[in-house]
Amino acid sequence: MPRYELALILKAMQRPETAAALKRTVEALLERGAIVRNLENLGERMLPYKISKHSIRHSRGGYFLFDFHASPAVITSMLDHLERDIDVVRPTILKHQPPTAEECPGMDQATLALNLKIK
């Protein structure tokens, strides 16, 4: 199963309501067969611009990041579920790309020897 990141902006709420919305999101992921690895709270802050969602204009929001493994077929149903949740301002799911280990090109041996002779 591929690894995904869900960046979630929730409307500004008190702690119990925020916890309930996060619990609903985790349960929805688990119902669809996902494996949640991590949930990170990035804090509440001003949105970069006002966002209208469910007939309400939002200027503040709580930012959360979910790290999970899931089947690719789950992603569209999960986004549909999150779009209908009245506490979610903006859901974004991105496929997590593992870091690629690129070899440093550096200098080849001939160039290195030439540079050492000149100095």
Describe the 3D structure.
The chain is α+β, with helices and mostly antiparallel strands. The chain is 34% helix and 42% strand. The chain is built from three helices and four strands; from the N terminus they run E-H-E-E-H-E-H. Strand 2 and strand 3 (56-69) form a beta hairpin. The termini are far apart. The mean pLDDT is 90.
In brief:
This protein is an alpha+beta fold and 119 residues long.
Structural class: alpha+beta
- Classify the oligomer: single chain
Distance between the termini: 54 Å
Show unreliable segments. none
Rounded to the nearest angstrom, the radius of gyration is 22 Å
Number of helices in the DSSP assignment: 3
Q: How would the blueprint of this fold be written?
A:
Blueprint: E1 3-11, H1 15-31, E2 35-53, E3 56-69, H2 72-84, E4 88-95, H3 109-118
Antiparallel strand pairs: 1-3, 1-4, 2-3
Features:
119 residues, alpha+beta, four-stranded antiparallel beta sheet, 3 helices
